[in-house]
Amino acid sequence: METRTVSILEMSLVPGIADPGHTWLTQFVAFAEAQGCAASSIRAYRQDLKHFVEWFERINGQPFEPGLITGVDLRAYRTAALDSGISAATWNRKRATLRKLCDFALQMSHVTYDPFQGVEVKPQEEQPPRWLTEAEYHRLARQIEQNVNAASTDHWRWQAVRDQAIVALMLYAGLREAEVCDLDVGDVQIGERKGRLIVRNGKGGKERQLPLNNEARRALKLWIAVAGIADPGLPLFIGKGGERIGVRLVQKRVAALRQACQLDEDVTPHALRHTFAKRLLDSGAPLTVVSKLLGHSRIETTKRYVQPGWEDFEKAVEKL
Fold first, then answer.
1. What is the pTM of this model?
2. CATH number for domain 8-107, candidates 3.30.250, 1.10.357, 1.10.8, 1.10.150
3. Which residues of the chain form beta strands (DSSP E)?
4. Active-site residue (options: 78, 95, 176, 258)
5. Does residue 203 have an active-site annotation?
6. 296 part of the active site
7. Tens of pLDDT along 81-97?
8. What are the extents of the domains in the chain?
9. Which class is domain 134-309?
10. Is 278 exposed, middle or buried (0-12, 13-18, 19+ CB in 10 A)?
């Protein structure tokens, strides 16, 4: 049977196999950890380095060491990577790994100059935020109403009504998850034909007031009645034990609804907020109004929603 020598780098990538000795990879990981890099980032670094080292040793015919890195190698690797058909986002991530490797090599005196100069990013088109298509919006709204109507116990109805109100505030008022969780009963003012919501601690500690449309008012009135909460100082949304809900619960409930509707995993609470912005702009609302409703500090942030999405492209070509 043919045997193959496993490199130190490969051994360090195999779960359960320790990196023997104080190799450059061990030192690199310690360097990244000392800079506060997350465990997920370090895993990505190690995988990217595995590919780079394999390429380096195949091209140069010698074992890799940080002191052998040259700008010629890095620029050639960029060309080879892009010629292989990887996306701009993937290359730019690999490039960030190589930047970190060069920083490490400089700090550890493996090299006396920075070989990274001239290793360019690959420009990538900025993608618009994820929002629900009309079909997805209809499926989600229908599923929420079905959950309320089909609840077989008081508990399930209580949860379904709460889900409906939570989603309504993101979908029809553009609230962030944390803003939903921070609401008190007194922050909601609902009349027969009008409603108002006060976000007291938005992003950056800013306060803003938002009008509530009919869908949001209906969902909130039902929740307040079912929950039996009247004290203005109490949390608007509570868990089973009466405690204020957290962001994680909002994410879990939206995930459950998403799965019931068979929607993509990128349909998150933030996608509901994005849908609010997109629907407003498509209806003709001025950019300045949408920016204020979202609580953006800079109108440039809101301009991302002016970009066309895939559904806009489809509608455009169907008119030909």
1. 0.62
2. 1.10.150
3. 188-190, 195-199, 208-211
4. 176
5. yes
6. yes
7. 999 999 888 999 999 99
8. 8-107, 134-309
9. mainly alpha
10. buried
